């Protein structure tokens, strides 16, 4: 009986070991499948992001791709300007900021990492190119194809940005606000599609009107990318009807220039009341789960004395949320907009089109 008991014990131990090994494999596979969000401090569980602003800036350098560089600003000076504003955002509950400044326009992952350390706010940075008006594209852009361009962005995700070890958490691009995409726009959105299929990084495209939004969605469809991998940035510039149509396809509709503008009446375009009505319409259509909110604020400009004006990140909390509550929005609705939606939108996951 003693021998049988020992054999039984060893069987239990063996099964426990196998269970542990398979558990590790499952967890690893889940991580590889993208159940993380990549922050400047490394991968993070999407559930840890908390209240997140999905489209903000710290520093933006408008001088152009041929002249910009880290030499253009002093990180300590930027931190001195930005930190008090970030602390106010943290005080109203902001836990995460998606920083949307792309390469050649002032992207600085090391600056964001230091700001994260000092403010306690999680930052997500990006890879990609800002194609609007070509001023922010490097000279090398014209000589490479979409596949090569995608390879550069994929390499940043796999190996980090410029030797910093900091990896991007999404792809930030921009196209011109025309209904027909230019050859450069087509190259950029195609490269973004290829990079998404290789990495699972969500594509956030500075777009504006609905014409280029749906033109980009058509390119993504051709490449086999689902609309849920695409954020229509500045979607407030499109009509509500097209916002609804895009959201019904699965696209993320980003209403991201929410600021209190005292000179505007409640019904005027881009007033707090206007945003509240648009969001309420999206809720009525059952599409609140596809809406992203942000201020598009910050904007330290190294060309201006002291960086110029630095807009804050609290107007959504001080003005928009009260306006939404007046329209019957619940705590659950607010949580959907500012916690659940950003976490889902920026989770790293390859989103292939299921249709043939």
SSE map:
Blueprint: H1 2-32, E1 37-39, E2 42-44, E3 51-56, H2 75-91, E4 94-99, H3 109-119, E5 122-124, E6 126-127, H4 146-159, E7 170-174, H5 183-199, E8 203-206, H6 210-222, E9 230-233, H7 240-249, E10 252-255, H8 272-284, E11 291-293, H9 315-326, H10 331-345
Parallel strand pairs: 3-4, 4-5, 6-7, 7-8, 8-9, 9-10, 10-11
Antiparallel strand pairs: 1-2
> What's the end-to-end separation, in Å?
63 Å
Estimate percent helicity: 40-55%
The total number of structural domains is: 2
Q: For the largest beta sheet, what order do the strands appear in spatially?
A: 6-7-8-9-10-11
SSE succession: HEEEHEHEEHEHEHEHEHEHH
CATH class of the largest domain: Alpha Beta
Which oligomerization state do the chains in this entry correspond to? single chain
Principal-axes geometry comes out as globular
Mean pLDDT over all positions: 92
Proportion of residues in extended strands: 5-15%
Please work out how many helical segments DSSP would assign.
Answer: 10
CATH architecture grouping of the largest domain? Alpha-Beta Barrel
> What structural category arises from helix and sheet content?
alpha/beta
At the third CATH level, what is the topology name of the largest domain?
TIM Barrel
Strand element count: 11
Radius of gyration: 22 Å
What is the name of the CATH superfamily of the largest domain? Metal-dependent hydrolases
């Amino acid at each position: 009986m003693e021998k049988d008991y020992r054999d039984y014990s060893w069987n239990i131990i063996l099964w426990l070991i196998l269970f542990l090994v398979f558990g590790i494999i499952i967890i690893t596979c889940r991580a590889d499948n993208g159940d993380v969000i990549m922050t400047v401090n490394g991968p993070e569980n999407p559930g840890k992001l908390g209240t997140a602003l999905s489209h903000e800036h710290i520093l933006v350098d408008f001088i152009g791709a041929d002249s910009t560089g880290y030499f253009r600003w002093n990180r300590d000076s930027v931190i001195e300007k930005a930190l008090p504003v970030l602390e106010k955002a943290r005080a109203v509950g902001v836990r995460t900021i998606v920083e949307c400044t792309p390469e050649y326009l002032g992207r600085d992952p090391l600056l964001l990492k230091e700001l994260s350390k000092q403010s306690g706010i999680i930052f997500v940075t990006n890879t990609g190119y800002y194609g609007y008006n070509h001023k922010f594209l490097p000279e090398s852009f014209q000589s490479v194809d979409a596949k090569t361009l995608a390879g550069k962005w994929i390499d940043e995700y796999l190996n980090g940005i410029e030797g910093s070890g900091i990896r991007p958490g999404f792809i930030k691009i921009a196209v011109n606000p025309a209904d027909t995409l230019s050859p450069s726009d087509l190259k950029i959105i195609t490269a973004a599609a290829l990079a998404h299929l290789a990495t699972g990084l969500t594509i956030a495209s500075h777009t504006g009107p609905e014409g280029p939004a749906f033109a980009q969605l058509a390119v993504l469809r051709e490449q086999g990318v689902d609309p849920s991998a695409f954020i229509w940035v500045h979607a407030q510039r499109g009509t509500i009807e097209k916002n609804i149509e895009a959201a019904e396809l699965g696209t993320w509709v980003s209403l991201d220039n929410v600021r209190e503008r005292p000179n505007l009446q409640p019904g005027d375009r881009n007033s707090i009341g206007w945003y509240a009505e648009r969001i309420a319409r999206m809720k009525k259509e059952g599409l609140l789960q596809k809406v992203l909110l942000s201020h598009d604020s910050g904007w330290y400009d190294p060309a201006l004395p002291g960086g110029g004006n630095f807009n804050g990140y609290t107007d959504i909390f001080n003005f928009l949320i009260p306006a939404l509550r007046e329209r019957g929005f619940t705590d659950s609705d607010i949580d959907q907009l500012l916690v659940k939606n950003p976490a889902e939108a920026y989770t790293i996951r390859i989103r292939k089109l299921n249709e043939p």
